[in-house]
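This section describes the prediction task in plain terms. A model, or a person checking by hand, is given the sequence of a single protein chain and must write out its three-dimensional structure as a string of tokens. No templates, partner chains or ligands are provided. The sample shown here is typical of the held-out split.
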Amino acid sequence: MFCICLFGTILYCNTSPMARFALSRAENAAIMGVGVAGATLLIVRSPFGRRSGAHFNPAISLTYLWLGRMHRWDALSYVAAHFSGALCGVFLARQLLGLSLSSDPVHYVVTVPGSYGRAAAFIAEFLLSALLMCVVLFATNHRTLARFSPLFVAAVTVFYFAICSSISGFSVNPARTLSSAIFAWIWWGIWIYFIAPCLGMLAAAGIYIRTFGPSRIYCAKVFHDMHSTCPFPCRFARLEHER
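The expected answer:
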């Protein structure tokens, strides 16, 4: 969230040095996507990301709980950490950026339905969340792809920002939306960003286990390198012997 607020302020604030380039909305969205994707990639591959599994998203943790790859209390703790961390990130950004973050048009990078309306925003959030979960499940549970899962997540992030930010503001994450909404005190369509991501990821998980079977989900980590302690009911070692 700190990175989202930072990049959002640099790109969209009227007093930012970037304003002189008069970039189009699509160009700003693409640059924003690259910045957030780069930060995400670094965090996922960091020692902290390797240790925790780098969910970042309550919807991901709840989906893995439904899949039986997380214990109930671990999932609750992860969700609490996601919301707390997101709020801390926005708070730190506000302390650093001040009015540049809080004033229009940045306004804490709040996510609200775009000009296409709430129905389009709901569909976009549902489909984007489902796509993200499909990519995570497919990559992390295949021996040749598991090592590249952070790159796939980063690529999807760039795609989201570049293509769909004008529809729903790009969230796919209840913690991301709530943290901005609390500081901006804008709640329009807030329910979309809680319900659509969870439903989308659960739908993707359901499709995955119907296609490949529940036994083909080895761990709840987004990136598993076999060198970091795993906090989940983990069967990832079996994937090393997959043919």
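For orientation: The radius of gyration is 18 Å.
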